Amino acid sequence: MFKEKNTIESFPLLLAITAMLAFMSLMLMSSLAQASDGHHKDKHFSHTIIKKEGKTIHQITMTAMENEVEVDNAGKVKYAAMTFGGTMPGPVVRVTQGDIIEFTLINPATNAFPHSMDFHAAVVDVLDEFGAANPGETKKFTFEARYAGLFMYHCGASPMPMHISRGMFGVIMVDPKEGFTKSYPKPDREYFLVQSQFWPDPLNVEGMMENTGWTQTLINGKAFHYTPVHDPASKLVLEAKPGELVRLHYVNANINNVASMHPIAGIWDRVYVNGSPKNIMYDMQTHLVPVSGSASYDIVSPADRPTNNAIVDHNMSSAMRGAITILMNKPDANPELGRGNPENMLLRVKN
Q1: Which CATH number applies to 8-30+183-344: 3.40.50.620, 2.60.40.420, 3.40.50.300, 1.10.390.10?
Q2: Predicted confidence (pLDDT) per residue in 317-348, tens digit
Q3: Using CA atoms, how far apart are residues 248 and 314, in angstroms rounded to an integer?
Q4: Using H for helix, E for strand and C for coil, what is the string for 107-163?
Q5: Gap between the Cα atoms of 95 and 56, Å rounded
Q6: How do strand 45-52 and strand 39-41 relate by DSSP bridges?
Q7: Are 345 and 338 in contact (CB under 8 A)?
Q8: Which of 81, 74, 91 is nearest to 345 (CA)?
């Protein structure tokens, strides 16, 4: 279904290909969705920030959708997905520790399944706030983001493996109330990477339970999403300038597989387990992330020359099925990528 190479050790010879193709990302950035600071609104997702009685309140609405998505870079493979807001993964939600989230989930009457929202950043009642909305119903709840970190969100309706594997997952980032510090420095660029397992049969719940029948590993909804080395149809790579501090926010949305995150040709300068500044590891070659877990990774490239890194899940059954991402460190890196709005940090191409 997807083109792939037999070995990741061919990068030194193959990465030159990206030099010709990476300029495409500069032109394609205009096709990425843009949102003004603090506000985003479209037909199926809205995020508005208001101030009330000294509190910052995020009014977030998502529509549960049973829609087709493209899971290949060429746009030829259509998949019967379930999504929050129409995309796999769903929209990035970013708040600050102590903020209030007023969340609304709309489940249209045209849907066939119940859907729910489970924010891993919330401390609530699983039987109340995380209860399902049937088709034609709307679910609302409020919570405070008490803990800083990088959290998964997903649908918890039954059968849960099917709802998650078909695309009902995403990221909520809770920035620390203290802001950046010496031990948690401000990065030059940030990117979000969400890994998931792909079952071509969307109703293969038994296979999802037994971990059989999955064929690809998706990064932000596509196999080999950001690597023209392994898929010539790939239109984007991650970019930074030599010597910049890049922070990669990674969430493991696999159904069953632990991930072994490794930067080929680099070292993780710092690892923030669960994305929390309180949980720091230093000088790591590889870091394990459990299912539904997360980590934020700092990496700094040599400042004196252009280089490339391949961010991989070193579990080879995952890497060679799609879990490889190229980070190009070059002087002419796109100044918009990895900065500003979440749409510049979780990169998508509108086909």
Answers
A1: 2.60.40.420
A2: 999 999 999 999 999 999 999 999 999 999 99
A3: 16
A4: CCCCCCCCECCEECCCCCCCCCCCCCECCCCEEEEEEECCCCEEEEEECCCCCHHHH
A5: 9
A6: antiparallel
A7: yes
A8: 91
Distance CA 83, CA 216 (A): 18
Per-residue pLDDT tens digits for 71-120: 999 999 999 999 999 999 999 999 999 999 999 999 999 999 999 999 99
In 3-state terms, what secondary structure has residue 243?
Answer: coil
* Separation CA 86–CA 281 (nearest Å): 36
Query: Which of 191, 218, 239 is CA-nearest to residue 19?
Result: 239
Enter the CATH code of domain 32-175: 2.60.40.420
Taking CA atoms, 155 is separated from 82, 162, 180, 350, in Å, by 9, 10, 31, 24
Give the C-alpha separation, 334 to 258, whole Å: 32
Residues 6+ apart with CB under 8 A from 285: 262, 267, 268
The enclosing H or E element of 56 equals: strand 55-65
Q: Any idea where the domains of the chain sit in the sequence?
A: 8-30+183-344, 32-175
- The reply to whether domains 8-30+183-344 and 32-175 share a CATH topology is yes
